[in-house]
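Run log, item B.
One chain of 185 residues. Sequence copied directly from the ordering sheet:
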Amino acid sequence: MWRSRMSEKPRFLKEFEVWEKKRKIAELFREALEAENRNEYGIAKKKLDEIMELSKDEFPEIYFEACFKLAEVFFEEENYRGSIKCALRAICNVPNKDLYLVGIKRIRDMLFILKEQGNLSVFKENMEPIYRLLKDNEELQAFVKGLISIAEGRKDITKYLNSIRTPELKEALELLLKPHQRFSL
C-alpha cells in the first residue's frame, strides 16, 4: 500500500498540471484570435486544432468552443462543409443538453446565413466524412441526411424529421425549407 501511494503523483502536482494545461489553452486561444484578426487563417486553424487536442477528454466545454471557433474560421474562408463539420463535431462531444442546444442554435444560424446567400448547394456532395463522424448519433445523421436532401432541392424531408427527437434540430431543418424573405426598413 505504501509503495502504491509513493508511485502516485501528489495532488498539488496534479492540480498544477491541470492549471498549466488551462494556461496553455488560454494562450493558444489568444494566439488563434490574433491570427484570425490578421486573416492568417492557417495559423488560427493550427492553434485551434492544438486546443481541441489538449481539451477533448479533460475540458469538454473548451473543446466545444474551440470547435465552433474553428467552424467560424472555415466559414470566413468560405469552406462551408468544413465549417458545418466542425460545428457538428462540437455538438457530438458535448457534456450536457444545454451545450447541445446552444450548438444546434449556432448551426441553425450558420445554415440560415448560407441559405440566404444561396450557398446550401455545397452540401450536395462530399458529405461522407461528416456522415462518418456522426456514426454513433442517429439524430445528427438524420439531420445531415435532411440537409443533403434540402441542398439537392427536395422539399419532403419528413422521414428525416421523424428520426429527430430534439425540436430545435427539427426547426433548424424546417427553417431551410421556408421561402426566402426580404425585409424592408
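Observations after the first pass:
- The radius of gyration is 20 Å.
- The domain at 12-177 is CATH 1.25.40 (Serine Threonine Protein Phosphatase 5, Tetratricopeptide repeat).
Flagged for discussion on Thursday.
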